[in-house]
Each structure stands twice: as C-alpha cells, then as structure tokens.
Amino acid sequence: MDNTPLAELAQRLAIAPTYRDLDGHHHPTSADTARALLTAMGEDVADDAAAQRSLDAHRAAVAATVVPPSTVRRLSDGADAPIVARLAGAAVGSAVTWRLTIGLEPPPGRSHRGTDTLNMHTGTARVLPPVDGDAPTLRVPAPMINHIGYHSVTLEVWKEETLHAAAVAKAAAGEPDTTAAILAIDTPTDWRGEGAWILVPDGCVKPETRHAGLCVNLYGVRSAGNWGIGDAGDLRALVEPLGETGIDFLLLNPLHALRNRWPDVSPYSPFSRLFRNPLYIEIEAVPGWANAIDVRDFVATDDVQAALARLRVADRVDYDGVRALKMDILARLHRALIADGTLAADADYASYREAQGALLDRFAVFCALEEHFRDQDGHPDWYSWPEPYKRVDSDEVAAFAEAHTEAVDFHRWLQFELDRQLGAIAARATEGGMAIGLLQDLAVGSAASGFDPWVFPGQFATGIDLGCPPDPLGPNGQNWALPSVDPNALQADGYRFWRALLRSAMQHCGALRIDHVLGLVRLFWIPSGRPGSEGAYVRMPTDDLLGILALESQRNGVVVVGEDLGTLPDGMAETLARWNVLSTNVLYFERDGDGDFLRADAHKENALLTVTTHDLPTVAAWWSRRDLTLYRDYGVFDEATHTKHANIRTKDLQRMAMRLAKEGLLLPTPEHPPYEVVARSIHAYLARSSARLVGTWLEDLVGETEPVNIPGLLPDRFPAWSRRLAAPLERILATPETHRLLRQLAARNDTD
What is the pLDDT of residue 529? Predict the structure, then answer.
C-alpha cells in the first residue's frame, strides 16, 4: 500500500504491511485486503474519502482518550514509567492540577471480587508537547502498588483558571479557598479518564524439575463403562495408576463445549472456549444417580441397552447418537434431582453458581435458545435468530430465560456437574503423587456462530477467518473458519474476554497448553470467502496478553506451554522464554544442521517434548509408513508425491535408528527393527532428553496406526476427531508393557 489514509489507518489498527513466507519472501498487504480487514474491525473505508474520515475520527478518538483503557505493567518495574495522559485542547506549558484515584484489587489470600479502599494522590505539573502528534500530554507518577492484580486508575485534571475561578467563588462565600478544599467539593474537571491498571509478575510458573506425562485424546478412549465416548470415568481410571508409575501429568485434548452434531465435532473448533462439553460427564458418578430409580429403570430397558451396546462397539464416536442418549438421560436425572429437592439443597451447586456469576447464566440461556430455535425453525446459529435475541442483554432474552427456567438450569447444572467431576479427578491426581496433574488444552478460537461472540459481541471481528499464509505444502494457505478477537477492542475493554478465558482454562489443572501461541503475537486474518493468499497479519498486544497470562498462571499455580510450531516471528522465541512460557518440540522435527535427529541431551530445556501431535502420524504409523499410504489413498498425495515422501521417510527411519543406536538404546542392524523394540528405545530416549517436560501419547503405548486427523481434509472425506482406540482402556492398563513404558519415560536423567 502507498502512503494513503487507508494505509495509515491500517497501520494504526495493527494491520501488518507485509508478511514473510517460509522461503523468506515478503508479501505486501494489498489495499483490497486492508480494506476488508478494516471493515471487519467496524471501520468505514468504502472509498478514499471514507477512509480519510475514519482516520480523522480515529485520531480524534485517540486524542480525546485521557488515559489508556488498559495499562499492563510488571510489578518489578516499580514506578519508573509514569502514566502519560493526553489533554486534548490544552496549551503546551500551561499549569494544571491533577488527582489520581487508585482502585486496588485485594491482594492474594483475599477475595478478588471488587476493589479495596481508594488511594488518592494529588499534584501539579506543566503540560508537555504531544506524543505522536495526537494531543498535549501530562506525565503523572505511576501509583506504588505492592501486589499483582487488576487495579484501576481514575485521573482528573483541572486548568489553573478553573481552580482560580473556584477559589474566587469560595472566597466570596467566606469559605476556605485552598486547592484541597476546592477539590473536595468536586469542582468539575477539564479532563477526566479511567482505565484498568494491571500489574503482573515477571513470568509464568516455571517447572523446577523434569516431569513426564501421558497425552490422551479423551473422546477416543474405549472402555466397558463409557457410553461410546471417553468421559470423566475413563479420566479417573487413567489418573489412579499414573502416580505409581512416576508420571506427573496427563495432557488432554481441549474439553471445550461442542455442539456434538456431525461434522461440528472438532475440539479445536468449539462453540465456546469458556465452558466445557457435557458429554464428558460420567453419568453413574452424578450424586443422586443411585437414588434416581426411575431413571435407572429407564436406562435398563432393552431399547436403551441396545443403543448403548451399539455405541460402545463402534469404531468411531457416534457424536449424534451419544449426544441423543446421554443428554436424554442427563435431562431425566436433572428433573429427578429437582423433584426430590437434591439440587435445591446442594450447597456446592449454589457456590458454583455464585462463583461463575452472570457468565454461566448467559451460557445456559444461550444453550436453551439454541435448542429452542433449532426445534422451532431449524436455525441454531444465533446470527439467524430473530433480531432481539442476537443481543445478550435484550428484554426478549431476559423474558425467554424467565419462561424457560428448567431448560436454562439444566445447562447450568451440566457445567457444574462436569466441573465437580474434573475437580475431584484433579484432586485425586495430586493425592496420588502427580506433581502437575491435568494439563489442559486451550484452542486457538471458537465458532463464529457460538456463545463467545454472542456474549462478547464487540470483541470479535466480523467477515474474516483465522488461518495461516501460503507455504510450500499449502499454496492457498489454511483457513480455519474461526473468527478472531479484535486486538483494539480487546485492549479497549480491559482484556475482559482474555481474563475470563484464562480463568476458565486454568480450572482444575496444573499446566495449560495454548494452541497456536503465535496468535499472542500476530493472527493471520483472511477476508471471508477469499483464499489465504489474500490474508494479512494483525499484530496483537503481545506483552499485555503474556503479562495477564503470567498473572493468571501465578494465581492458579499453572505451568504454561505454548504450541509454537511453524514459522516464528522475529524475537518470538525470546519473548516466550522471557515470560516463562515453555515451547512445544516434536521429535520428528528436532534435527541438527545435517538433518539428523538431535542428541537426547541437546533438546531445548524449557519445552514440552513429544514424538508426535494430534495432527501428525502416531509413532507406529510413522515407523510403518501407514500415514503416507493414507495420504495417497485420500488424494492428499499423488503417486509421484507419495514416492518422493516414501524415499524421504526411509532416510528418516534410518536416521532415527542411528540416533537410537548412538544413544545406546538400539542395537545397530541392517534390518528394519519391529515397532515394539523401537517404542521402548524411543521412550528411553525421551526419558534422558534435556526437555523439562516430556510426554508420550496413549496411542503410542499400544501401537495405534490410525490418525485422529488428517489436516486439509474436510469431514466429508475423512471423519476426523472421532477415531476410538482399538484396545479398551481396561486392557491397556492391565498390560505390563504399558506400565513398563510409562516407568521408563518417567525415569530421571542421571544428572537430575
């Protein structure tokens, strides 16, 4: 773009002027792309004149903003950096009087709801020249606060002549005319601004020793007791023996709320990241189940038992079938608990509702509205609802909630019950000796038609999709069909959505994985309906987001792992390290300059190291080349590409065998070793690696070869996120080899 109002507005609103591809080539952001992205942010840039008006309005709005809506600073920085206030219309060099009022959030150990007593500071100063040409400025000493938290500042500023006029009026009335007396009667201010003042620690919680863990796609766990999908009962069964093996964490797929209607089942495309998927509830563990005789009798009927049997033997999760059955039984159980007074007397339920507040109520109303409009006219997406219901605070939404109290409470109770079960499992993990416990996963985004954009409407850009730019394997880029938060709106709102998201994600876990953590630096926005080649990066307020992440990490005692695979922006690795966010390393990609696999002691220390991920082949599939066959069969590779990658794989397998042999973990042999031998060697290799966290997948303990996902294939071609393990959990946990591999992984380095 040239030096135009459109280009300047794009720069001001964090749209990057260019991006660099994997080959190092720079691609400028076109005017058409900038126009589409600015429109998604709510700007009118239909033509050059409109762009100029929007730019002028933005300049005026910035100049009129006395203090930033959000200021995030490290507590260790002290008061060295002052508050810089803008005083539109002030004369440079003129004298002003200011008063700073600080709202303190209580320190740790006390309630974090509301603010503490107000602290007031008053002073005088001279107006300074403009910053960036927006408005004259005032520098006010930063407040001295001795604890991290979400505080607030209110700055009031009076011109000298305003106070003089007030003093004259006081003198004429025979009253004290000191500055303190004048301000005490609230003389109208000439400038006034309010903002969040967020003080954060220097970094996230950092693991001090090495920890080993097990990675699990919970939905795919097969067992004799679950209802066709892995649930909290299976999670509890996994946690109980892990402490005995020395395993310290259990990494789970995102447990976010899904609609559970095929094909809308990806845990990485939820309809809300603020709440969870109720299909993970273990029905038999619900308090009151034993006394709900009518419900239990219904479950025992031939029809229900036949449905259960079908779901349990299926090779893939039948989300529609599981949803229909489990939600029916849970609804019956909910009604029974209401009828016998159990819910009304449940103090834990009352406490949960109070702690979650209005956000839980709104989520429950949203779920009830979705059901209502789907049943009524087949339009479940909120942007197709009648206009009044598109606004969370409308009278019509309130009236609906009042008229459908049982349906609303049902969805509220589902969240409580799953939260209760997860809390009990997390506690059991700690009691059983697991140092970290559950390591939960935070997806990069949620559906445009979901709850999060409905309840935080101003925080999400409209008319764009998240994705990534073109690369050699994807010439059109990737489009994830997810909306994006608008960094400008996020900052203007005091980061309320980000704070709520982290608090939800960090419940009942000792560590949190953040999918696509690069999104805290920049997000690739693609105008809806266009290829990835027409997208552009939007810069995020990185230090603010990471500072709040560190704050929530320290408050909740949670280690943070960032999924930082792919092309990193300049300085990204150093930034993550500075905030104690661990990297994600995948053994398949960890090579030296010659393409050989790294020595075990050469891996990055501050990282989670695994052999594979949910988007990559299992170790057994990689070792047998099963993944390459699938890519060919599904048309991802043509025959020539398949042959090319097969040749590359042969060399990689040889390199892996050589690395394991050099480590003394595999006997050198010209033959292709069997998977069982290689699996033991790889787990021993992970065990002696220098990474702070190491993990293995449940699939790799049993030699699973089928993938859970093949990136780039739509659900009509490959049923991703539904594959169930071939072996039931009871058999896996009863196999001595499982415990051998886990103990091997958990074995300490000689240097530990």
Answer: 84
